[in-house]
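Late entry, phosphoenolpyruvate complex.
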Amino acid sequence: MRKPLIAGNWKMNKRVGEAVETVKALVPLVAGITAADIVVCPTYTALHAVGQAVNGTNLQLGAQNCYLKESGAYTGEISPQMLRDVGCMWTIIGHSERRQYFSEADELLNEKLKFALSAGLKVMFCIGETLQERQSGKMNDVLERQVTRGLQGLTVSQLVETALAYEPVWAIGTGVNATPDQAQEAHAFIRGLARKQFGESVAAELRIQYGGSVKPDNAKELMMGPDLDGFLVGGASLKADSFAEIAKAAL
Ligand code: PEP
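Prediction complete; structure with ligand written out below:
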């Protein structure tokens, strides 16, 4: 049985005070939920304060990105070890905005993934096709490339600490979510790729989140897909009540 994983990606939103306020509002709304892992991913600047606010609660802390070195002359970067130092259990890697705006390609993302895992973080590793790739019939090729190259060289025990987030780029922040059938079809395909690469039993345990315009009113239906194991939520995670509703819909 895979435990649902629901994460809020706050992207470049909320100053420290607002971030702490949001998480303080969220804590009572999801208190007592143990049947799902619930993660909040604020900006770097808010991680420490939010980490303190979630300490002792059932909420887990995640970052949105990290670098592939522990320390040194890498101006502007943050290491997984630094993230652990402020209480992170998780990081997102490979979000489509990192791929698109910061030119992060499969090989770099694979290095980041392996380094974050070896530093003891769990990772939500994002994949997903653009609208053009879907419309031109390339979706499966794109997903196969992202999964195969992205997960290359991972050990089975590292894969257990990894979740995949299927986020079709055309659904992110657009208000147009994948239909439950589209999401399930992609998730089943992705699980099949993991099966080929890592074997049946670890693929059966792999959590695959869906992301892309998830809202309280579509979460329940999306979760019906047998290969959907939770959500990575952008816009709707910025408000405590809508994020809490999504988390409950995933139970
Ligand atoms: C995201 O950016 O990971 C995301 C899924 O955004 P939204 O929920 O706003 O579509």
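The first helix runs from residue 16 to 30. Will revisit in the morning.
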